[in-house]
Amino acid sequence: MDRLFDQMGDSDGHFLQEFQGIGFHARLFELACFAYLQECGYVIQRNQRSPDFLAICGSTSLALEAVTSNPPLGQGHDIAISEMADPETQNIPA
C-alpha cells in the first residue's frame, strides 16, 4: 500500500489523516481504484482536487470519483466480513 500511495500521491492533502481515521474505508477504496486503473494500463492524472482520477487508455478517457456509503458520523459500524451476520440465519426472501 505504501508503494501505491507513493505512486498515487495525495491530491487533496487529506489522504493520510483520513486513512488513519474515520475515512479509512473510503480512502482504502480510492487506493484500490488507483491500483485497478493502473493495472488496466490507464495513464492516471491526479493534479486536480476533483474528480479523484482522470484516466486515459488508448482512445478511452474517464473521470472517476471514488465514493463509499458510510454510516452517519457518530454511528460507526464495523463492516468487516467477520462482523457480518451469517447468511444462513438471515431471512432472505426467495
Notes on the structure:
This protein has helices at residues 2-8, 15-19, 24-39, and strands spanning 43-45, 53-57, 60-64. It is of the alpha+beta class. The chain has one domain (2-68). It has a three-stranded antiparallel sheet with strand order 1-2-3, covered by helices on one side. It is globular and about 45 Å long.
Please describe the topology of this protein:
Blueprint: H1 2-8, H2 15-19, H3 24-39, E1 43-45, E2 53-57, E3 60-64
Antiparallel strand pairs: 1-2, 2-3
**Number of individual domains:** 1
Flag low-confidence runs: none
Encode the helix/strand succession as letters. Answer: HHHEEE
Structural class, judged by helices and strands?
alpha+beta
CA-based gyration radius: 17 Å
Main pleated sheet: 3 strands, antiparallel
The strand line-up of the biggest sheet is: 1-2-3
Query: How many distinct helices?
Result: 3
Percent helix among the residues?
A: 25-40%
**How many E strands?**
3
Q: In percent, how much strand structure appears in the residues?
A: 5-15%
Task: Note the overall shape.
Answer: globular
Measured between the Cα atoms of the first and last residue, the distance is 40 Å
Give the averaged pLDDT, no decimals. 84
